[in-house]
Amino acid sequence: MIDETDTTDAFGLVKKIDGNTWELSDDYKPGMRVPGRIFVSENLMHGLDRKTLDQVANVATLPGIQKYSMAMPDAHLGYGFPIGGVAAFDKEEGVISPGGVGFDINCGVRLIRTNLREEDVRPRMKELMSKIFSEIPSGVGSKSRIRASDSELDDAFIYGSRWAVEAGYGVEGDIEHCEGSGHIEGADPAQVSDKARKRGKPQFGTLGSGNHFLEIQYVDKIYDHDIASTFGLEEGQVTIMIHCGSRGAGHQICTDHLRVLSQAVKKYGIDLPDKQLACAPAQSNEAQNYFKAMACGANYAWANRQVITHWTREVFEDFFRKDMDDLGMDLVYDVAHNVAKLEEHRIDGKKKEVYVHRKGATRAFPPGHHDVPSAYRAVGQPVLIPGSMGTASYVLHGTEAAMDISFGSACHGAGRVMSRSHAKHEFFGEDIMKSLEEQGITVKATHPSVIAEEAPGVYKSSSEVVDVVHNVGIAKKVARVLPIGVAKG
Amino acid sequence: MPVPIPDKGYEYFEHTADAKFRAYGMTLEEAFQNAAVAMLNVMIDTSNISNEVSEKIELTSEDLDGLAVDWLSELLYLFEVERVVFGKFKIDNITEHDGDYSLSAIAYGELLDLSQHKFDTEVKAVTYNELKVEETTDGWVVQVVVDT
Fold first, then answer.
1. Which CATH number is associated with domain A10-417+459-488?
2. Chain B neighbors of A141, CB-CB under 8 A
3. Partner-chain residue, chosen from B15, B70, B148, that has the shortest CB–CB distance to A77
4. Cα separations (Å) of A68 from A85, A111, A364, A398, A406?
5. Span A74-119, pLDDT tens digits
């Protein structure tokens, strides 16, 4: 293993704007069209790899970028965009880039509430987690119990959550409680290759592997009682969090279109500092075809999380001998954190349509926004920020400030600081499992090494990251949830 | 890149979120073969994978970078859809014709058996980030970052 980490302290390369906001000057790298904006605490800035700053600068060179190339507090090295990267591009003069979305299109998180109390569930966690783990396929190579037909796959690509609910995997209320009602308009399955279809068909309702998980949690702290109650959350209550994406379908869609766009770059004469930022003018056929396929991938992911939700409810119904209504198992919300969307934002005092790319970043829309479900419109969108395995996750709410500061975006998680291979040398899965058990957390995984590579020590502290989001004001803390059971691929 | 070639033909680099490797070969074909072994070993120890199944792979791409991405992406696709865990690769040749590059290869492995195969990190996809296919004084080098 060769370590090329650039140990230059990022601190000296940026200008402090205020306690948690830093500017990367537009002369940091040739070709930057706008400066970079990085939202981190002083402590997090010291830990930032210089290459992550380079990636922020690379994004700033793309045509039509608006205001700033941004990095959220959980930023770390990615490919193309940094993870935690947010950028908006003019609808006409800008570009669309799969490098600003990633391979796991609409990787995202959802939170389900219950009427159960922590003390009802904790004594039976081992049994419950075994049931979850056997009913919800996870891990490399796992397959779904569903064999989708071609027309069902098309419907999932076009309608997302709605397809899953109409096929019997959920209830009507689930649709409204998803970002964008669980789908992106304009999806066209004709732009999805046979290969992507073949990968997607057997994978509905599968978690996948890596950092994806299904967690049983309880609400241990409320920061804002009024808003928590609007979201249906109270202290001591059991919640379920699901983190996964579009599986092989999304990976293949990105692979296929990246290929096309890497050639389009030459055709349109776009100079790129990183080939993974391959892109095309937003209104070109190449970019629009990618967008139509990406929407299919995003919709697939919402359908995927919906199917997993349904099976989770079935496990709970069977286990607690009550139906989902008696258990109060409503979907609180579902957010996408790898996606590009056409949105309206106010830029230099004027309303403008832009393609907002969020790569490892969560949308965080304010009170009153028409895209926030009616039940939450008075308080803003629920913003779900999962912690690493065994650590706290947070529920926040969107703010008007985020619309001015970050194109209505916040961070998406804790943010990795250590590579998977390094983690496997540093930690033993069995030790991590034992220490989590000691903290009262039941872990089920295909085998111990997947636990080692996701050990809590390989991530930044989720509370530190969330505090920056809260203090910058791009989302405000509502509740903290702690895990009691984790299923990992 | 005056780097001594490691015995196994590839080496890994530290990368926070993903996996980065450099594969070497006296010939371009050998470097591509070693890149495949390097990628598969991110997922699973390939040393015990048998040759019971084989897949013929033929690809054409607009440039060498694209060919490297297509080659490795094809292996990920076949792993998922044909459910074959590959361990060995034989690239017959990589040829250039009118600026396009073609590859003809056979990948060997065994059928996926979740009760037998213990996977580490899933490789989701092959990126263009820091991608390099270069001829050096010692042969060829293929550098790849894969999304995990």
1. 3.90.1860.10
2. 80, 83, 112, 114, 117, 119
3. B15
4. 11, 31, 17, 20, 9
5. 999 999 999 999 999 999 999 999 999 999 999 999 999 999 999 9
Predicted pLDDT of residue B2: 45
> Which of B19, B76, B129 is nearest residue A276 as measured by Cβ atoms?
B129
A225 catalytically annotated: no
User: A200 and chain B: CB distance < 8 Å anywhere?
Assistant: no
Q: Which of residues 6-65 of A touch B (CB under 8 A)?
A: 49
CB spacing of A1 vs B145 below 8 angstroms: no
The b-or-e profile of A136-164 (16+ CB within 10 A means b, else e) is bbbbbbbebebebeeebbbbbbbbbbbbb
Tokens (6 digits) for A133: 């783990």
Cβ contact (<8 Å) for B147 and A79? yes
Annotated domain spans of chain A: 10-417+459-488
Q: Write out the DSSP string of A211-269.
A: T-EEEEEEEEEES-HHHHHHTT--TTEEEEEEEE--HHHHHHHHHHHHHHHHHHHHHTT
- For A251, B29, B146, the CA distances from B76, given in Å and listed in that order, are 10, 19, 11
pLDDT of A7 reads 67
ipTM for the predicted complex comes to: 0.94
Q: Residue A366: exposed, middle, or buried by beta-carbon count in 10 A (0-12, 13-18, 19+)?
A: buried
Nearest CA in chain A to B41: A421
Asked if the B10-147 domain carries CATH number 3.55.10.10, the reply is yes
- Give me A396's structure tokens: 């926040």
| Contact between residue A200 and residue A249 where contact means Cβ atoms under 8 Å apart | yes
pLDDT at B5 over 70: no
Interchain pair A141, B119: CB under 8 A:
yes
Q: Which residue of A has its CA nearest to B15?
A: A419
Sites in chain A below the pLDDT cut of 50: none
Search chain A and give the residue with CA nearest B6. A1
Task: Specify which residues B108 forms β-bridges with.
Answer: B54, B88
Instruction: Tell me which of A310, A412, A422, A425 is the catalytic residue.
Output: A412
pLDDT in the model for residue B11: 95
Asked if pLDDT for residue B1 goes beyond 60, the answer is no
